[in-house]
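Exercise: predict the structure of this protein bound to FE2/S2 (inorganic) cluster.
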Amino acid sequence: MRVARSYFCALITISTAAPVLFCISSETYLCGKPSVTRTATDSAVASIGWIWCKIYMTSLTINDTPYVVEIEPETPLLWVLRDTLQLTGTKYGCGAGLCGACTVHIDGMVERSCQVPIGDLDGTVVTTIEGIGSPEALTVLQQEWVAGQVAQCGYCQSGQIMQATALLRENAQPTDDDIDAAMSGNLCRCGTYPRLRAAIHAAAKRMGE
Ligand code: FES
Ligand code: FES
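Solution:
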């Protein structure tokens, strides 16, 4: 995908640069009809602007808020969330799709935001930990997380909650095996696995009542 995009960008650059150079040079040296060539130049520049927007601007919704992000399309979503939009609840762990610290939901599906280029997200709906409950109105899962004192250092916990939220959406009464399978890609160096499993069970019980 990235290779294809790179070739596409190179093709666009070559195919747009040539007409612009022609228009500019023809206005200066050849044509003798400034009004005509200036219009053609303007059109070419406008076309480049349109193509630039198509390649470098991404429109998406994050936590119910619409955003238009102007950034290189290969930039990982995690970078955009943390560095561009200051949504720092999503954490950087491995940067290689292996730890789950950067877990978010994209169109309702669990994704590792360090592995998703922003250019692939036009028109999508992203949910981060900032869009799951609030300090004043925690979700049932978050309430059980607090009650069970799941977090230790806390670094992995936003990713854990995003993963567990998706699990309970798909499986209202998960078994231990279901939980272990669903959460196995979310690593915790503090070893909070027994507590987070208990919190998921407690939340499932309350949500099922
Ligand atoms: S930072 Fe994305 S999976 Fe580790
Ligand atoms: S709570 Fe410390 S890494 Fe999970």
